[in-house]
Hints:
By secondary structure, this protein is of the alpha/beta class. Helices cover 19% and strands 26% of the residues. It has a 10-stranded mixed beta sheet with strand order 21-18-17-16-22-27-32-33-34-35. An 8-stranded parallel beta sheet has the order 1-15-12-9-2-3-4-5, with helices on both faces. α6 crosses α7. The longest helix has 14 residues, at 32-45.
Amino acid sequence: MRIITAAEAASIIQPGDSVLVSGSGGGHCVPEKVLEAIEARFLEEGEPRDLTLIHAVGIGDRQLKGAARFRHPGMLKRSLTSALIDSPPLIPMALDEAFESYTIPQGVISQLIREIAAGRPGLVTRTGLHTFVDPRQLGGRQNKAAREEIVELLHIDGEEWLRFKPFPLDVVVLRGTTADEEGNVSMEEEAIPGEMLSCAQAARRLGAAVIVQVKRLARRGTLPQRAVRIPGILVDYVVVDPEQRQTYASHYEPSYAGEMRVPTEGLRRLPFTERKIIARRAAMEIVPGAVCNLGAGISTGVSAVAAEEGILDAITLSNEQGFIGGAPLTGPDSGGAQNFDAMVDQPYQFDFYDGGGLDVAFLSFAEIDGAGNVNVSRFADTIVGVGGFINISQNARKVVFSGTFTAGGLKVECRDGRLAVLEEGRHSKFVEAVRQICYNGAFARAEGREALFVTERAVFAVGAEGLELVEIAPGVDLERDVLSRMAFRPAVSSKLRPMDARLFRPEPMGLLDEFGRHARSARSPRRTLPVAPAPRRAAA
Length: 540
């Protein structure tokens, strides 16, 4: 292991290299100092050019950090990620065919890295079937420049599967907190675990260089052995950045790293807006003991509602970055969590998700069509990507999709438990046909999975004929405010009922008082301790 500067790290990357970078969202585990040096070298020397940039999660602060540092013409040849939304400058470039753009599920990328590390022939999974990732649709391509078949359809024992093909690696850039003189790396201050070990192992398998950015150095033999997340035998170079931040928004928050727990009362409360109405209605689908996932966007508000209502400790929330228990974060630090019980590497979290471990998942939506298909990846002139959406929605036993009924200028008002639409959004989310299928309603129904679509004014289920309206907000006109705002005519349930009036009042709903009346989550059958027979009474 050698300790080098960020500029020296940048000089290791050669034109045409395939570069894998760690991190998530707004600076979580992103080796920003090294990425900054790579950009500076390109601006000064015009190299390295024609790079393939791979990252499992969207990285960047939605301005000019993270993946956006590769925005300069000629710098990128290919982008393979689950999301581009965190690096907006890359989106118009992808639309203009400036580089090959692929977006595939977050869990697929993290698990595929682990498969590469083991030398296996790619990732074989059902995740992605009948979505835009399926090679019978787009195969994960987001533009015409992306011509390679990176996924293929297989038939095994009469069932359909997808094989995501392994990719080459030349340089892997990771991040930790402390490195010792042997290159052993710990992650005690990091806000997410990521897939650091799998990345380093994949690099070793393929002969790629491993660069790890850390905050500080320690003497050899002083790191607690069980704290080491990347063994020194896998590390080639270490870059030290004493100013390394935990995230772009937070210098260091101990609760993000699991160093402490914060009082539940200290968790962020949601302001009383349409987003809180939606998060509240979604939270009403939780039952005691449920294991849940909270996706990005409006669904992250479910954790704040659960904390406010006092039911957080009776359920288990999780997110795809690897947290189990506690409360996933909202806002600029979304992706991390507080008060969590465990933190596992991302590939193993997706193993749990793919294996049907989730009772209910809370996800957002951008477009819905009459068949109950959902799009979150591409709409208008924006390539968002899918993150962990497909892994989660395709394998959870129940999915609650949440979003405002329309977008772009929507204004509503609540009075006495009733909702009034003051100004309608400019964009309808209920469309004739979604642009890209990220959740296939018919496929999910055929596999026995349940879905609910929650908005501030109406709730829909997927019936035998497609989308069906099952609830409507008090004060809302069915034809004017709901049906006329949709590009298709949904079925209207014969048992259409009003949404709970408590949703539209600012005070807490009192979910804790009625929580005990719910049946506990029906987990997968497990072997239980045999019940001993009652002792026989002695004869008189």
